[in-house]
Amino acid sequence: MRAYRAWLKKPAGPNRGFMTNCLFCRIVAGEIPANKVYEDNQLIGFWDIAPKAPVHVLLIPKQHVSSLYHMDDSNQGLIQAMIVAAPVLAKQLGLSDGFRLIANTGEACGQTVHHVHFHILGNFTDSGDTGFPA
To answer: What is the full DSSP assignment across 36-69?
Structure first.
């Protein structure tokens, strides 16, 4: 049990299951509330608290993986599940005309939570603002 507790306190690494210092892991564990719009055995989708578009949800795996850089062959099923779930979720959110799927990887490119996640954005204004640079 002591080894398990020590493992939980390790800094966020590439593939460690659950990290106590990870915001998204805490959402998965139910320690932090989120306005969920999707959930299955591998993934959770919820509204972004700082939306960049009228529809802006995050799709995250329940398993902790720090970034796309940390995914490997063992994560093929997980990334496939995320890719397959994204358009299903977008359609459920009324984005039948299209949506934007973004995965920021690394702090230099805007990743602020070190847990792999997709941004699903849509219903942009007539101004053509897509919420992120192209």
So the answer is: EEEE-SSEEEEE-SS-SSSEEEEEEESSB---GG
In the chain, what is the greatest distance between 2 CA atoms, to the nearest angstrom? 56
pLDDT in tens, 35-83: 999 999 999 999 999 999 999 999 999 999 999 999 999 999 999 999 9
Residue 64 appears among annotated catalytic residues: no
CA distance 15 to 62: 11
Selecting among 56, 114, 115, 117, the annotated active-site residue is: 117
Contact assessment for residue 124 and residue 105, using Cβ atoms and an 8 Å cutoff: no
* CA–CA separation, 66 and 2 (whole Å): 24
pTM (2 decimals)?
Answer: 0.81
Q: Is the pLDDT of residue 31 over 80?
A: yes
Report the CATH architecture of 2-122. 2-Layer Sandwich (3.30)
Can you read off the two tokens belonging to residue 128? 């053509």
